[in-house]
Design goal:
Layout (H helix, E strand, L loop, with lengths): L2 H4 L10 E5 L2 H13 L4 E4 L5 H6 L5 E5 L7 H16 L5 E5 L13 H8 L8 E3 L8 E4 L2 E6 L2 E4 L19 H6 L6 E4 L1 H5 L3 H8 L6 E4 L4 H13 L5 E5 L2 H12 L19 E4 L4 H11 L4 E4 L2 H4 L5 H17 L4 E4 L7 H4 L1 H7 L4 H21 L5 E5 L1 H10 L4 E9 L2 E7 L9 E5 L8 H7 L4
Parallel strand pairs: 1-3, 1-4, 2-3, 4-11, 5-10, 9-10, 12-14, 12-15, 13-14, 15-18
Antiparallel strand pairs: 2-16, 6-7, 7-8, 16-17, 17-18
């Protein structure tokens, strides 16, 4: 007997979930989690047309990659309602606003509270669940406090070596209820680990719901609480609900569906083959990104720094791009993988002096950051156009958005598994030069030091 048809009461026909990713790297993280679980998923890089949806009509999850993580509440109020309406119209019972599992945000930039206030208007649900913990990604929420792993050590998020000093949205509060209160006036509640372990999750869920559509956070600290979070969300979806969550929501739902026998018991993805050469651009300033650049430099990659002051100069930018493209193409001709980067960790002078460098170019910090992303995108475009490279990597959420938007790629699907949260994706494009490209969009703190070598070899442990 087919297990899917045996559970029609919990497994509806058609689409199961639609989502908007607040940055490109996090958007592929969701796609990896569901694809590995056996749930066909496609990620669009721009709002899909009817012909796009027809092409991918077999997909049970549809995502749209965005860049709201770096945007203002005013931008959100202008742009997100139409996006949410589009996704809601696809008929899935869950509309997901995907946030980073480190929850970094503020009332002024990437406001998760503002996104929630806009998103709940698309449903008549009596609650809006929020799931952030994702043990596979070393993210844990306990009694409302968020913890994240880095270099084998788990840190409270406000003491995390990267996120506590994020250049735009530093996390200075680990209690997500307190943090979110600064971004919305909506009622915020919590179902914590002790209640989950005592079997009180459903009782608490019933008690907390209301016509005011409260945010209800659900702790996830391990496999058991992850499973219970998935059960609570799915069994209380009603006629449809909105959830601002990390990919922890996908992992939780998949855990519950797996327990119900609806999807394969063992998550899996294909393994990538080795390629002679890859190309990399990195706009990330995280410590892990810095370590990955150092590893690449000592293991045969040609690492080249983008001169930010030249990049921000209208007369020099084109020359700087041409210089780096020429160096990258020369490396590729020798089967050496090029890596172009704008910073090598958070203590890089390029990071520490960025505000002053931007001011010297008569640019705001935000405009200067956008200019750097555009330069990296143009470098990658020219390298792909002028070489035989078919696999490339972009490190950093903003950089990934800039590059993805610049290449004429309409959609991504997962080609192979790599590091947790960073799948190797297959590009879909109307341009034959882009269609079939393989790309990994890597969040700054994800992957091992040897990540770039692993992308090239296809070998991941």
């Amino acid at each position: 007997m087919n297990v899917v048809t045996a559970h029609t009461n919990v497994w509806p026909e058609g689409r199961l979930l639609t989502y908007y990713g607040d940055d490109f790297t996090g958007s592929t993280d969701v796609m990896e989690a569901f694809t590995a679980a056996g749930i066909p998923t496609v990620l669009f890089l721009e709002r899909p047309k009817p012909s796009d949806l027809a092409r991918f009509q077999h997909m049970r999850c549809i995502g749209l990659a965005g860049q709201s993580r770096g945007k203002s509440p005013d931008w959100m109020r202008r742009e997100l309602p139409a996006i949410f309406e589009c996704l809601q119209g696809m008929g899935a019972p869950i509309l997901h606003y995907k946030v980073c599992s480190t929850f970094d945000s503020s009332a002024c930039v990437g406001s998760i509270g503002q996104a929630i206030d806009l998103g709940v208007k698309t449903t008549r649900a009596r609650w809006s669940p929020l799931v952030v913990g994702a043990p596979r990604l070393k993210r844990y929420q306990v009694f409302g406090h968020l913890f994240a792993g880095a270099n084998g050590v788990v840190h409270r998020i406000d003491r995390h070596p990267t996120m506590s000093r994020h250049p735009v949205t530093p996390m200075q509060e680990s209690d997500l209820r307190v943090h979110l209160t600064e971004q919305t006036q909506r009622r915020i509640e919590l179902i914590h680990v002790a209640e989950l372990s005592e079997g009180l999750g459903q009782i608490r869920c019933d008690a907390l719901q209301g016509d005011d559509q409260p945010v209800v956070m659900i702790d996830v600290a391990d496999d058991a609480t992850q499973l219970e979070a998935g059960r609570l969300v799915w069994e209380n979806r009603g006629q449809g609900l909105f959830s601002a969550s990390s990919s922890g929501l996908q992992y939780a739902l998949a855990a519950y569906w797996r327990q119900q026998g609806l999807i394969p018991q063992t998550p899996s993805l294909p393994v990538a083959n080795a390629v002679p050469c890859i190309a990399v651009v990195s706009g990330s300033c995280s410590p892990m990104s810095g370590a990955q650049i150092q590893w690449a430099r000592t293991h045969g990659f040609a690492t080249e720094r983008l001169d930010i002051s030249r990049c921000l100069d209208a007369h020099e930018a084109g020359l700087e791009i041409a210089r780096l493209v020429s160096l990258a193409l020369a490396s590729i001709a020798q089967n050496i993988s090029p890596l172009v980067f704008s910073a090598e960790g958070p203590d890089d002078p390029a990071v520490l002096n960025f505000t002053a460098t931007a001011a010297a170019a008569s640019l705001s910090k935000e405009a200067a950051a956008e200019r750097v992303g555009q330069a990296l995108a143009e470098i990658m475009r020219q390298v792909l156009d002028q070489s035989t490279i078919r696999r490339f990597v972009v490190a950093g959420g903003d950089s990934s958005g800039a590059v993805g938007s610049h290449l004429g790629i309409r959609a991504l699907t997962v080609d192979a598994g790599m590091a947790p949260g960073v799948p190797l994706c297959r590009a879909w494009s109307d341009d034959p030069k882009r269609d079939g490209l393989q790309v990994a969009l890597k969040g700054g703190q994800l992957g091992a030091e040897s990540f770039y070598g692993q992308v090239k070899s296809g070998c991941f442990s």
